[in-house]
Write a structure and sequence with these properties.
Strand order of the largest sheet: 1-2-3
Helix content: 40-55%
Largest sheet: 3 strands, antiparallel
Oligomer: single chain
Radius of gyration: 22 Å
Order of helices and strands: HHHEEHHHHEEEHHHEEHEH
Strand content: 15-25%
Distance between the termini: 19 Å
Length: 291
């Protein structure tokens, strides 16, 4: 078994918001496997072990550009260190310049993008370094999605922090409403059939372990697991979610009534998955180490 270090305990605490002692116990039981330890905590602590995942630490902007014919679209996230810089005109201009170049050159990934040259013969990386030097903060181009569609594309950006791009066939207004719904409800996929197998299997295993702790019969446990799985699928599937503008119907029902089909979507949340320490855990970690 690998050594359970204070840094590992601290990392698991940041990911799950579980008590440090519980984090250490889970890591010991998991043999140092971080993902397995997360699952152990979810079984023991339920939703409490995942609430920290909503914390967003880094700053920046998300922007979306759709071509006039609505067949091409770019969703882009550019990060900085403070909220103040998010509103800096040079930072915003740089971000839109990057989006325009993505449209023109269609880079395959971030590495390819950073090596592209502008009309002034500077590369995007040169521009980034120069801007960071002027502003005094680190600037990063974190991710982008570039789509070429045979249908239509629409987008919605909420306050420059949440961006959604949707590929659809049918009514433009209905598709725009769906983009707004996705920004608010953050589904995982279009339909429950699209939920990745590994994610579904992981959830089912956690539900089985939670249900097994009830001490009930296998038949009742099976029903409990099936019920939890059905609830999970309805929560993460776009078509099954209650439509935010009219919760009496699902998104799927709204789309059918408007003759519209959503083929895929992508959304970015500024800083999603990047955590910044906000609490000093030094004393807590030291206390755990001494136990």
């Amino acid at each position: 078994m690998s050594e359970i270090t204070a840094a590992m305990v601290k990392e698991l605490r940041l990911k799950t918001d579980a008590p440090l002692l519980e984090c250490k116990k889970a890591l010991v039981e998991a043999g140092g496997d971080m993902k397995k330890a997360e699952d152990i905590l979810r079984v023991r602590l339920g939703d409490r072990a995942t609430k920290a995942s909503s914390r967003v630490a880094s700053e920046g902007i998300v922007l979306c550009r759709i071509s006039d014919d609505r067949l091409s679209g770019v969703l882009l996230e550019v990060n900085c260190e403070t909220d103040f810089v998010c509103r800096n005109e040079s930072f915003i201009d740089f971000s839109y310049s990057v989006a325009s170049l993505i449209f023109q050159e269609r880079p395959s990934d971030i590495e390819n993008l950073m090596s592209l040259s502008t009309e002034g013969k500077q590369t995007i990386e040169d521009m980034r370094v120069a801007l960071a030097g002027r502003i005094g903060e680190n600037i990063t181009i974190r991710r982008f999605t570039l789509w070429q569609s045979e249908c239509n594309l629409t987008c919605y950006v909420h306050g420059s922090r949440i961006g959604v791009m949707v590929e659809y066939s049918g009514d433009d207004n209905a598709a725009r409403d769906v983009a707004m719904h996705i920004a608010a409800s953050r589904p995982l996929c279009v339909s429950r059939d699209d939920v990745p197998k590994d994610i579904l299997e992981r959830e089912m295993e956690i539900y089985r372990q939670q249900a097994a702790q009830s001490g009930k019969s296998d038949e009742i446990i099976s029903k409990m697991v099936n019920g939890r799985v059905s609830k999970f699928l309805s929560e993460v599937s776009l078509l099954d979610q209650p439509f935010v503008k009219d919760t009496s119907k699902s998104v799927g029902e709204m789309l059918v009534s408007n003759g519209t089909v959503v083929h895929r979507f992508q959304f970015f949340v500024v800083g999603e998955g990047i955590e910044k320490e906000r609490v000093d855990f030094a004393k807590e970690v030291a206390a755990v180490k001494s136990m």
